[in-house]
Amino acid sequence: MEQVDKFKSDAMNWIDHMESNLIKREIQILRLFTQKTGLKQTHAVLIAAFFCFSFILTGFGGKAVTNCIGFFYPTLKSFNAVKSKGTADDSYWLTYWIVFGLFQVLEAFGDLFLFWVPFYQFVKCCCLIWLFAPQTNGAQVVFKHFVAPFVQTHQGSIDSTIKAAKTFGDQMQREVVKPVSQHVAKKVSEAAFDAITSQLRKPESVVEGDSN
Questions:
Q1: Is there a contact between 132 and 138 (Cβ–Cβ < 8 Å)?
Q2: Do 132 and 183 reside in the same domain of the chain?
Q3: How far apart are alpha carbons 22 and 13 in whole angstroms?
Q4: Which helix (H) or strand (E) holds 50?
Q5: Which residues make Cβ contacts (< 8 Å) with residue 102, sequence separation at least 6?
Q6: What predicted TM-score, i.e. pTM, was given to this entire model?
Q7: 142 with 186, same domain?
Q8: Which of 92, 130, 166, 184 registers the highest number of CB atoms within 10 A of its CB?
C-alpha cells in the first residue's frame, strides 16, 4: 500500500508541476478546453497523447500521426529559434532537421521491409521524440557520433559527386532541355499564329458567301 500511495503522490505532483508549466505557456486551445470542460490542461494533453498512441499502436493512421509528431513541434521550435537573437537554438534544430532528413531517406529505402516490423510506428515515434527532446539530445548524439564522422571521412567523394552531378545537369540543360523547350515554344507559337490567322479569315469567307 505504501508503494501505491507513493505512486499516487508522485503522479499528482507531476500533474501539478505540468499544469503550472502549461498555464505559464498560455496556450489558447488548452485554456479553452479548461473553460469548456472544467478539467485541467494536463488532462487535455494526456487525452491527446492517449489517442495519438492508440492510433500508432493500432496502425490506424499511425504513420500520419508519427510524422506529425516528428514535424510540427520541431517546426514550431525552429520558427521560434529563427526569430530569437541567439544561435544556440538555431544549431540545435538545424542538427535535428539533418538527422530527421537522413532518417526519412533511410526509411524510404527500407519501407517495404519496415512495414512488417511489429509496432514499427510506435518505435519510430519514440525515436523521433528521443531525437528532438531537449532532455535527451538524441539528434546531437546521432550527428556527433555517426553523421559528422561519415561526412568528414567521405567529404572529398561527396564534393566530387555533387560537382559531377552539377556538371551533368548543366550539360543536359544546354544540350537537351534548352533545345527541346525552344522547339516546343516555336511549335506552340506557330500553332497559335495559324489558329489566329484562320479565325481572321472566316469573316471574309462569310462575306463572300453572302454576296453570292
A1: yes
A2: no
A3: 14
A4: helix 41-58
A5: 147
A6: 0.63
A7: yes
A8: 92
